[in-house]
Amino acid sequence: MELKDKITVMHSSLQWARRTHEIVRYRPEDYNLQGVYTRDSWMDYSDVGRKFGGKTFTEEEYLKIETAYIKCAAEIMRRSGCSYLTIGYVEKNNRKKSLAKYRYRSRIYIDDLADLLREMLRGHIYCFLANIKRKFYLDVGYDYYMCIICPIDWDTLNDIVKSYGLFLDPRSSRYDNLRLNADKGRSATENG
């Protein structure tokens, strides 16, 4: 079976569905009951210099978030026992020469993860990264939703993610009460 097929099986397996998490920069209480983020916010690196909520989004702010994602992913990878990840699928969105080294089945060692993840977060390349033996999977989707499958328990993973100022599973049932209370508070204020 091809590596990309093994990754697809792992990703869609009911056994691993419980271990799929999204790591985001968005505060859980800013989602509505339908799971939609309700704040005016930047979407990617190209938004540096634009205004959101009346405030100019700076490169310094962007780099702080980007660095948090990179460090968080590396720590989760280390805690999962992974010394490397393998590219199981790759799409390059531009012709930067530095992206040529990222090919299907290339191994990305933990010390090299930052460069690739930075390119992924900036939308220059799209990859599935996996370590089948360690049951680890990572990809970065639109709006900085980083999907992770790993063997770490939810509470430990949540502690790691929070330590970087990020959030885990903002639309999962674990946050339903938080969102419900936040929405009730907004309704009371709006009707008020």
What do you see in this structure?
By secondary structure, the protein is of the alpha+beta class. 36% of the residues lie in helices and 20% in strands. It contains six helices and nine strands. It has a seven-stranded antiparallel beta sheet with strand order 5-4-6-7-8-1-9. A two-stranded antiparallel ribbon has the order 2-3. A hairpin with a 5-residue loop joins β7 (136-140) and β8 (146-149). α3 (59-79) packs across α4. Mean pLDDT is 85; it is low at 175-180 and 186-192.
Give the overall shape.
globular
Portion in strands? 15-25%
Radius of gyration computed on alpha carbons: 18 Å
Helical residue percent band: 25-40%
Class from secondary-structure proportions: alpha+beta
Instruction: Please provide the count of β strands.
Output: 9
Please trace the helix and strand order, writing H or E for each element.
HHEEEHEEHEEEHEH
How would you sum up this structure in a few lines?
The protein has 192 residues and is an alpha+beta fold.
Highlighted features:
alpha+beta; globular; single chain; disordered C terminus; two-stranded antiparallel ribbon; 36% helix; seven-stranded antiparallel sheet; 6 helices; 192 residues
List the helices and strands and how they pair.
Layout lengths: L2 H10 L1 H4 L2 E5 L26 E2 L2 E2 L2 H21 L4 E9 L14 E3 L3 H9 L3 E7 L4 E5 L5 E4 L4 H10 L3 E2 L7 H16 L1
Helix pairs in contact: 3-4
